[in-house]
Amino acid sequence: MSGDSGPVVVKTRRGDVECAFLGSGPAVLALHGAMGGYDQALLLARTAGVPGFRHIAPSRPGYLGTRLSLGRTPAEQADLYRDLLDALGIERAAVMAISGGGPSALQFALSHPDRCWGLVIVSSVCTRVETRLPLAWYILRITARCGPLVAAMRRKAEQDPERSARRSIPDPVVRARTLRDPEAGPLLRELQRSTFDRMPLRLPGTENDVAVTRRDQGFALERIKAPLLVVHGTNDKAAPFAQAQILAARVPGAELLTIENGEHVSIFTDRDSIRARVGSFLRAHAPAESTTPRSS
Question: What's the pLDDT tens digit per position in 126-154?
Fold first, then answer.
């Protein structure tokens, strides 16, 4: 399967994985973060990704149409990604992951080094997160299961996208510039809307991701062999910038793109610079034959 698609069910040896596709070329597995799904994985590909690559955008376990039982730990999710590539007949892929998708992307590179030709880790973590969860998280867990409340929240976000963006982009100048941008603005608004769509089906995976980041990761980062690009904002409150510094320091040959004063949504506020760097990184490391079908 290639080209662009809506969501489809891919049958793997572990179970059904909901997945969508964008573009053609060397394979890039796009992994969304909390409150995500295949739709937000596609948003990641459209926001930080570049043409010339085949983006594979699954709903990770616990999100939308992929059951949480298919992979609760980074190791289980990494094996599921391998099985997904097998089912699609893909030999090797890069992995581009944001936020809560980062731990399983790192594990994929460690568990299946022969299947990973590159890593792009955006606004994510590699060690245990010690910061307390915000009150907004606990409120979200309650409201997400109440349909009328979710509908009201979605209407407010659609009617006033500027207000909806204040929490993630506190700087009014940066916020206004991003929302006015003819490409980044619509992408950010699409992210805001998608979070409210089928919200209860995004909650199990989100709760699992939160639990994962509050445990000791124990990644042997020095053993990662795939080329790595780390993208992170210095003002990221959800994933502290120190996480990116640790990752870049411990993985041999890692590159770090620092977004000065960048928040957790830097892929929107600084889209042009991030996209340019991601594109040059992927083109530099893409193998000539990355979508060759595996022999059975």
Answer: 999 988 888 888 888 888 888 888 888 88
The amino acid present at 178, given as its one-letter code, is T
> Whole-angstrom Cα distance, residue 37 to residue 66?
9
- What are the residues whose beta carbons fall under 8 Å from the beta carbon of 129, sequence distance 6 or more? 213, 214, 239, 240, 243
Q: Residue 56 to residues 25, 39, 102, 187, 222: CA-CA distances in angstroms?
A: 11, 11, 16, 18, 27
Instruction: Tell if the pTM clears 0.85, that is, is over it.
Output: yes
Q: Residue for token digits 């915000």?
A: 134
**Residue 9: pLDDT over 80:** yes
Report the distance separating Cα 277 and Cα 19, nearest Å: 26
What count of other Cβ atoms lies within 10 Å of the Cβ of residue 252?
Answer: 11
Q: CA distances (Å), 76 to each of 82, 83, 102, 119, in order? A: 10, 11, 14, 18
